[in-house]
Amino acid sequence: MRLTDFWENMRETFGEEYASSVAQDQVLPELDGRSVNEALRDTDAKEVWMAVCRAYGDRVPARIRR
């Protein structure tokens, strides 16, 4: 997954402004207690996206939960 695709998915899921807030502030246990932004520094974007999908479940539109 390209980073641009990751951010498109985040914006579609959370909205233009809230997506960056989620990425900065939300710490996910599945990402070893790191925020999305921290995890993106050294983890594949697809792996981070899948962790977001699992954490937010039905909030993520089904067609982009991949």
TrEMBL record:
Pfam families: DUF3046. This is DUF3046 family protein. It comes from Stackebrandtia albiflava.
